[in-house]
Amino acid sequence: MVLANRIDEVLKGGRRSLLKIDIKNAFNSIPHSVITWGLEAINIDEKLKNYILKMLKSRKADIDVQLKTGVPQGDPLSMLLFIIAINPLIMLLGKEFGEGSIVAYADDILITGKKNFTETDISKVVQLAGYFGLKVNREKCQMINKEDETQILFAGVPLTTTERVQRVEEITSKYKKELQNLENLEIPQHHKLILFQACVNHEQLFHMFVEKSDLDSWEDANKAAIDYLQKILGIDDLPTELVELSWELGGLDTILPNTQKLAVNEWKKQVAAQ
Fold first, then answer.
1. pLDDT at 213 over 80
2. 269 vs 210, higher pLDDT
3. CA-to-CA distance for 264 and 270, rounded, in angstroms?
4. In the 8-state DSSP scheme, what is residue 139?
5. I need a surface site. Which of 125, 136, 264, 265 has the fewest CB within 10 A?
6. Can you state the angle between helices 32-41 and 46-57, rounded to 10 degrees?
7. How far apart are CA 101 and CA 112, in angstroms?
8. Chain segment 182-196, per-residue pLDDT in tens
9. Percentage, residues of the chain above pLDDT 70
10. Buried b (16+ CB within 10 A) or exposed e, 167-185
11. Cβ contacts of residue 169 below 8 Å, gap of 6+?
12. 92 vs 165, residue with greater confidence
């Protein structure tokens, strides 16, 4: 949600050129020296800093060589350490291309501007990233200028030069296909219910936060969810109240798309009123 709002913020006020930067093998290539610099820049507690650096230093490859770059895959600290390390680069890009022009999500970096971008701008990013031991994959960088009618994909979100692209129909179609695939699995019914709640429906509810849409747009997805539950449970006319009632009270404890969208709309109103 924060990312979506940030994208909307930088795209408002007319057409803007977009430049998406792809950092090659970002998480595995960030130097430990840059991580150290980042930790010191935020004045982290000395004991905690030493603990983190010792953890990084203890990592070795299969050939018993000490690794001097990268953050551990699957470690809860890895994303945070990467963000701390790359933040100075983001700040430098902001100074180069203008304050408020950068949107960053982990290793995804989007630069926006009122002027057209050129290959020279990518070369400048290559130079700045190099200061931090990072390499830019020029072939995977994407650039669209103000007069272009094409799209780019940033952090899974399609963008034009003016707005995020609404994907309700695409997302709903994928949701219905996943429900069909789940229904066809040869597993116990209660496993189908658990997978629906924990995976398929959970992903769908995430889109309620980031998609620019009204409540009616998700009616098809809402109906698909109820139809699926009725089929696997063998119940006709399954009441919505029973679907969303908690386990403790004998319900399915499942949030439906429409209910999630209502909650998101109410949350947005409260944020706007603050």
1. no
2. 269
3. 10
4. G
5. 265
6. 170
7. 5
8. 999 999 988 998 888
9. 93
10. bbeebbebbbebbeebeee
11. none
12. 92
The DSSP secondary-structure symbol of 35 reads H
Query: Quick count: other Cβ atoms within 10 Å of Cβ 74?
Result: 5
Question: Percent helix, strand, coil in the chain (nearest 5)?
Answer: 55, 10, 30
Calpha distance 158→167 (Å, rounded): 9
Read off the DSSP letter of residue 153: E
Rounded Cα gap, residues 46 and 152, in angstroms: 42
Which amino acid belongs to residue 193? Answer: L
Other beta carbons within 10 Å of 136:
21
**For residue 64, what pLDDT is reported?**
53
State how far the alpha carbon of 141 is from the alpha carbons of 38, 108, 148, 224, 251, in Å. 25, 10, 16, 37, 48
Give the pLDDT band (50/70/90) at residue 209. low
Element (H, E) at 18: strand 17-22
Mean pLDDT on 79-91: 93
Q: What is the dihedral of CA 27, 31, 36, 41, to 10 degrees?
A: -80
Phi, then psi, of 236 in degrees rounded to 5: -85, 145
